[in-house]
Amino acid sequence: MIIVMRHGASEENIQKVVDFIRKKGREAHISKGESHVVIGAVGETVIDPRDFELLDNVKEVIKISSSYKLVSRIFKNEDTIIEVNGEKFGGDYVGMIAGPCTIENEDQINECARLMAEAGVKIIRGGAYKPRTSPYAFQGLGEEGLKMIRRAADKYNLAVTSEVMEISQIPQFLRYVDILQVGARNMQNFNLLKELSKVDKPVMLKRGLSATINEWLMAAEYILSGGNREVILCERGIRTFEVATRNTLDLCAIPVVKKLSHLPIIVDPSHGTGLRDKVAPMSLASVAAGCDGLMIEVHNKPECALCDGAQSLYPEQFSELYQKLKKLAPVVDKIM
Ligand code: PEP
Ligand code: MN
Q1: Cα–ligand 1 centroid distance for 168 (angstroms)
Q2: What is the CATH code for 82-332?
Q3: Which pLDDT score is estimated for 297?
Q4: CB within 6 Å of ligand 1 — which residues?
Q5: Hey, whose CA ends up nearest to atom 4 of ligand 1?
Q6: Which superfamily, per CATH, for 2-62?
Q7: DSSP E strands: which ranges in the chain?
Q8: What is the pLDDT of residue 156?
Q9: Residue 137 — φ and ψ, nearest 5°?
């Protein structure tokens, strides 16, 4: 249930509503918008909406039938903007994250960081724990990898995003990483999501391989409901009957999510297509469709990459694409 306060409602009016929500055994989440304060009453206990209508300066009580509340635009109408190292995602902004699939060694990640900084990127990506289909494939360098990407990023003033696969890794990630990525395979690892809800850093939540948009938003709700409001959604393609590309990149998720939620949605065209030559057209299409950011795999030597070389751009391809995207963004009233 969501309680919308009248314009000009006092702190005391708001506190009365909050106290009443708590008395009824629910949690109160306040969102202060430009024109209205909105209070979400989250929980399962029975509440009669009329009780709120009787309180001073309550404008409206909205019963929400969807199970997500805090991620919903009804709860918070203004876009959430997440800023990391000066790069913004959400609202008018299109942010960029780029880098290799995996941290392979000190030289490789250093070279990638140098190239990304040269191209104007402010956030580098790189996996240290890799969720590979085969147990025999390269699994990542673990904490050593995180240390390497941190050192390389610090050298070139970059922020870092990397995938956290389990709860026990969270303290490590907090030491080395600026955005904690939840991979597609872990989108519904609810215990992991609950722990990440207590973290004081943004979480990038990738869409599950076969997740509906509703399931994805519910997963985000887990993170917001525990107190972490900084969630970036990442569309990375879903599994369909089509096998011409690695996944089917669902660009329609952009307008759908933007209508339902205030959270920023970015697109990963690399995993979404699995093929280097599809990355530029899908990146341009994503920006045209109104995405709030992109995450693109770039490798200093894609043909030597230990993971996902075929979908990684050559550095010069990336720079050329980034310039084009910057020209396109203003056409759709966005800043990049
Ligand atoms: C990744 O971004 O490194 C990754 C493994 O992607 P996904 O979880 O979307 O498969
Ligand atoms: Mn990859």
Answers
A1: 19
A2: 3.20.20.70
A3: 98
A4: 101, 127, 131, 163, 183-185, 206, 236, 271
A5: 183
A6: Phospho-2-dehydro-3-deoxyheptonate aldolase; domain 1 (3.30.70.1140)
A7: 2-5, 27-32, 37-42, 58-62, 82-84, 87-89, 95-99, 123-125, 159-163, 179-182, 203-206, 231-235, 265-267, 293-297
A8: 98
A9: -80, 160
Rounded Cα–Cα distance for residues 250 and 255 (Å): 10
CA of 184 to the centre of ligand 1 (A): 6
3-state secondary structure of 5: strand
Residues of the chain scoring pLDDT < 50: none
- Ligand 1: residue of 101, 162, 163 to mutate (most ligand atoms within 8 A of CB) is 163
Please give the distance, rounded to the nearest whole angstrom, from the Cα atom of residue 151 to the centre of ligand 1.
Answer: 22
What pLDDT shows up at residue 14?
96
pLDDT tens readout for residues 121-152: 999 999 999 999 999 999 999 999 999 999 99
